[in-house]
Structure formats: structure tokens, C-alpha cells
Amino acid sequence: MKKVLFFSVILIIGSLLIGCTPQGKPSNTSQQMYDSGLRALAVTDAYLNGEIEVIHLVAYFNGAHEYLISLIQLGTYEGTHDIASIPYSEYSHDRIIDDNVHNLARHAQLRFIGTSRNNDGIKLMRNELAKSLNEKSR
């Protein structure tokens, strides 16, 4: 009886651990958007860990947005070149990631100008982005 209980507990713990691990790049996501989202998570985590100031976070998001626009304009973005048709493209999940990055950037700007007095909004949007990338929340 103890062996059955022991193996049952091991099975349950194993199942939970497997369910909690990141799943990698979501389907319908371009590599560029996935990589951009991961970089946004890393920079946001650096801010939340106190490694960089909010001004650096805002500067990162301004640069990341310009970079993505340039990829689309130059035709080197593997997704669609027409932003309006992203929801219907092969990379429809890109739109969700892009929206989450924009929301995160907006909360960083609110924190920078002093409208937001804490990091709750940044942390919430960071976790939404993480969820859209199949990554762990904080």
C-alpha cells in the first residue's frame, strides 16, 4: 500500500512539474516576434529586480518599437507586411504579443512620468506578456 501511495505522489508531482514548465514558442508566432517578446521580458525583469532604472526600460521599449517597424518596412519581418492583416495571417499570435508589449511599454511610461506610483501595472503586464510567450509569471 505504501508503494502505491509513494508512486501516486511521485506521479502527481511529476505531472505538476511538467505542466508548469514553459512550452516554448507558441504556434502562429514568428521567430522575430517571439525573440522580441523574450527580450522585453528580460529587460522588464532587470527593471523589476532593480538592475536598471525606469528610464532605461522606457528607452528600451522605444527602441524595440522602432526596430519592429523597420523590419516590417524593409520586408525582412517573416510575418505579414500589413499590420492590419496580422490577425488573419500565418503569424496571428504576433498581434497578441505585440499588444502585450505595447501595454507593458505604456505602463513603463506611466511609471516614468509619475502617474503610477508603484510597479503593479508593469508587473501585471509583464505577466500577461509572459503568458502569451508560454513563459513563467513572476
What does this structure look like?
With 138 residues, the protein is mainly α. It has one domain (26-132). 67% of the residues lie in helices and 0% in strands. Mean pLDDT is 80; it is low at 3-12 and 14-21.
Q: Helicity level, as a percent range? A: 55-70%
Shape, please?
globular
* Overall strand count: 0
The overall number of domains is 1
Number of helices: 5
Mean pLDDT: 80
Kindly provide the radius of gyration, computed on alpha-carbon positions and rounded to a whole number of angstroms.
Answer: 19 Å
Order of helices and strands: HHHHH
β-strand percent reads: under 5%
Give the low-pLDDT segments.
Answer: 3-12, 14-21
Distance between the termini: 39 Å
Structural class estimated from helices and strands: mainly alpha
- Most strands sheet: none
Descriptive keywords:
138 residues, mainly alpha, 5 helices, 0% strand, disordered N terminus
Q: Quick recap of the structure?
A:
The chain is mainly α and 138 residues long. The protein has one domain.
Furnish the topology, listing elements before pairings:
Layout: H1 2-20, H2 31-48, H3 54-74, H4 93-113, H5 120-132
Helix pairs in contact: 2-3, 2-4, 2-5, 3-4, 4-5
